[in-house]
Amino acid sequence: MPDELYPVPAEWARSARYDAAGYEKLYGRSLADPGSFWLEQAKRIDWIKRPEIAGDWSFDEADFHIEWFADGKLNVAANCIDRHLAGRGDQVAIIWEPDDPSEDARRFTYRELHAEVCRFANVLKSQGVKRGDRVTIYLPMIPEAAFAVLACARIGAIHSVVFGGFSPEALAGRITDCDSAVVVTADEGRRGGKRVPLKANVDAAADRAPALKTVIVVKATGGEVAMQNGRDVWYHDAAAGVAADCPVEAMNAEDPLFILYTSGSTGKPKGVLHSSGGYLLWASLTHELCFDYRPGDVWWCAADIGWVTGHSYILYGPLANGATTLMYEGLPNWPDASRIWQVVDRHRVHTVFTAPTALRALMKDGDAFVARTSRKSLKLLGTVGEPINPEAWRWYHEVVGEGRCPIIDTWWQTETGGAMIAPLPGATDLKPGSATKPMPGVDPQLVDEKGTVLHGATEGNLIITRSWPGQMRTVWGDHARFFQTYFTTYPGNYFTGDGARRDEDGYWWITGRVDDVINVSGHRMGTAEVESALVLHPMVAEAAVVGMPHEVKGQGIYAYVTLNAGVTADDALRAELVKWVRSEIGPIATPDAVQFAPGLPKTRSGKIMRRILRKIAEGDVSSLGDTSTLADPAVVDDLVANRVG
Ligand code: 6R9
C-alpha cells in the first residue's frame, strides 16, 4: 500500500524560502563542498572574529577530534540580543504566559531583554562567577530562566539547566558532576495550579553537593522559604545594586556554551557539552529552515527550558533569528484541554512546536476543546521528542490545523543540538509518522548489527557519517566516555542509539531506541538509572527495568523487582517503591508497573535477558523466543503468570 502523502500546500510552495528544488540544491552543496558551504552559512552569525576554517574533525580513534569554526570568536548572547537592538529593539522578544490564565501575560522587548540579561550577568559576576565557571539553573518556566541562561552566555559561564521536576538527589548529582559553585533557583515553581518547592529541593541537595557555595533565589511565588546566611542570596536584593549594562565576553567558537545532563544506557546521566559557535549556528539555521520563521511571527515551542528542545527552540535558535518567542509556565491541559489553543488565540501564535505525548493526551479529551478556539493565526505545527503515531499526526493536522498547516516532525537528540531529520514546510511533501529528509550537512545511513552499510529501502540502526556544527563536543569530565558511547559501536561513525527505516522515496522513519534507553512522554530515561534507584531501597535485592507500550506516554516504565529474603511482597511495598523512585529521580521516572519477581531470567553467565522481560511487559508472551540458554528457564513461567497490568 502506498504511503499517505500530504503535498506542500500551494501557498507554502509559493512563499517559503526553499521549495523542493531549492532544498535539493542546498543539501547537495552541503555534502559536496562542506568547507565553503559552512563558511557561507557562518555569515548568519555576528562574529567578533570571523572564522576562516569550517569543520575540522575525525571520528577515528587515532585522531579523534571535533571542531567547527575554531578560529572564530563570538558572543552567543550578543547574537541573541545586542545585534537586534538597532533594527528591532522595540520588538517583543519574549512573551511570557503564566500558569494561571486569569493573570496577565508579560512581554519583554529586545531592549528590555538586554537590560534584564545584563543585570542578571552583573549579579552572577558579583557572586564571583567567572568565564568558564559552571552555573546550575534550577528554575521554573519564568522569564528569569531565560535571563539567567543568556546571562551565563554573556559572561562566558557554562550553564547547566536542571529540569525543575528532578529530585534533590538528581540535582545534587548534577551539581557535583560539573563542580558548580552557584545554583540559581526560585522560591517555588507553579505548574497546573500546584506549587513545586524548588528552594527546599536545593536545600536538600546542598547537603549532598559540597561544591555548592552560593544559591541565588528568584522570588517567583512569594512562598515561604528558609534562607541560609552566607550561602543564599535573593536575586532582587543582589540586582538592586548592579548596573543594567554588562560588556560581553569574547568567546572562542569552541568554548563551551552549556552542559545538559541526559540519560544513557548506563546508570549515570551524561553531561552533554555543547560549543558556542557551531551550536548557535545549528540552532539558528535549523529554526529558520524547518519553520521558515518570518519577522513578526509569534513562535511557540511548548517545551521546558530543562530539556534541549527548550534550549535550542525557545531561546537560542529563535532569539538568534530575531523572533518573538513565547514561554509558557504551565501544563498543556490545565485548567482544561483547550489551554494550548487558548494561548494560541491570546497571542496570535503562528507556529506551535510540541511533543506527540501532549497531543495524544489532548486527543483523548476530545475535539470539542479544540473546536471552541479559533486557531486562525496558526500556519505551521511541529513535533519533537518521539515517533509520532499517524493517528496523532492526522489529528494534529485535521483537527488542530484544519488541514492547512504542514506538520514539521523533527528528529534529533540532546547530542545533536538541533533538528537533524525534518521536513521544510515549502519543500517537503509529508508522510504521517516520517521525519522525512535530512538537514544540510547531515548524512544519515543505516547499518546492520555488524556495521555493514545497508542500501535502498530497508531498516537498520541509524548512524551519522560526518560531523555537523551542532554536534556535542564531549561528555563533561569524561572524554573517553564520549568516544566510547557514540563512536565505538560503528567505528568512524556517530551512532545515534536509534533504529530507523528508509523507504523507497528516501524518507526516514525513526523506529525508536535500540539501546537501554526508553522514551517516556518524550523524555529520555535510562533503564539503568531506574534500576540503580530501586536497588538503593533497603528491601530490594535486584531490579530490571524495561519499556512497555503506553497509550499516552508512548512508553511506560515496567520494573521487575526481586526482594531480599524474608521481605513480604504486597501492594503497600509496591506503592512505596513507586514513591521511592519518584523521590530518587523525579516524577518523570515514576514506574507504571512493578512486578515482584522471585528470579530474573539470566543467562548462565549472569546476564539478564531483557528481550524476554520486554516481551512479558508488552504482554506478548506467546513469542518469548529461545529460553533454553537461561540458567533457570522456570523463572520465565513465574514471570508470565504474575504479569502486572
Ligand atoms: C530532541 C530530543 C532523543 C531521542 C532520540 C529518539 C527520540 C526525538 C524524535 C524521536 C522519533 C522524532 N526522538 N525526536 N523519535 N521521531 N521526531 O527529544 O532529545 O531528549 O535527547 O531525546 O528521542 O529516540 O534518540 P532527547
UniProtKB/TrEMBL annotation:
EC number in record: 6.2.1.1
Binding residues annotated for ATP, in chain numbering: G385, E386, P387, D409, T410, W411, W412, Q413, T414, D498, R513, R524
An individual GO BP term: acetyl-CoA biosynthetic process from acetate
UniProtKB keywords: Acetylation, ATP-binding, Ligase, Magnesium, Metal-binding, Nucleotide-binding
Binding site for CoA: R191, G192, G193, K194, T309, N333, S521, R582
Record PTM N6-acetyllysine, positions in chain: K607
Residues reported in the UniProt entry to bind Mg(2+): V535, H537, V540
GO cellular component: cytosol
MF terms (GO), sorted A to Z: acetate-CoA ligase activity; AMP binding; ATP binding; metal ion binding
SUPFAM superfamilies recorded: Acetyl-CoA synthetase-like
Residue span, AMP-dependent synthetase/ligase domain: 82-467
Top-level EC class as recorded in UniProt: ligase
Post-translational modification: Acetylated. Deacetylation by the SIR2-homolog deacetylase activates the enzyme.
AMP-binding enzyme C-terminal domain sequence ranges: 529-607
Cited Gene3D superfamilies: 3.30.300.30, N-terminal domain of ligase-like
InterPro entries according to UniProt: Ac_CoA_lig, ACAS_N, AMP-bd_C, AMP-bd_C_sf, AMP-binding_CS, AMP-dep_synth/lig_dom, ANL_N_sf
Cofactor(s) this protein requires: Mg(2+)
Domain Acetyl-coenzyme A synthetase N-terminal residue range list: 23-80
Reaction equations catalysed: acetate + ATP + CoA = acetyl-CoA + AMP + diphosphate
NCBIfam families: Ac_CoA_lig_AcsA, PRK00174.1
Function description: Catalyzes the conversion of acetate into acetyl-CoA (AcCoA), an essential intermediate at the junction of anabolic and catabolic pathways. AcsA undergoes a two-step reaction. In the first half reaction, AcsA combines acetate with ATP to form acetyl-adenylate (AcAMP) intermediate. In the second half reaction, it can then transfer the acetyl group from AcAMP to the sulfhydryl group of CoA, forming the product AcCoA.
Family: Belongs to the ATP-dependent AMP-binding enzyme family.
Protein name according to UniProt: Acetyl-coenzyme A synthetase
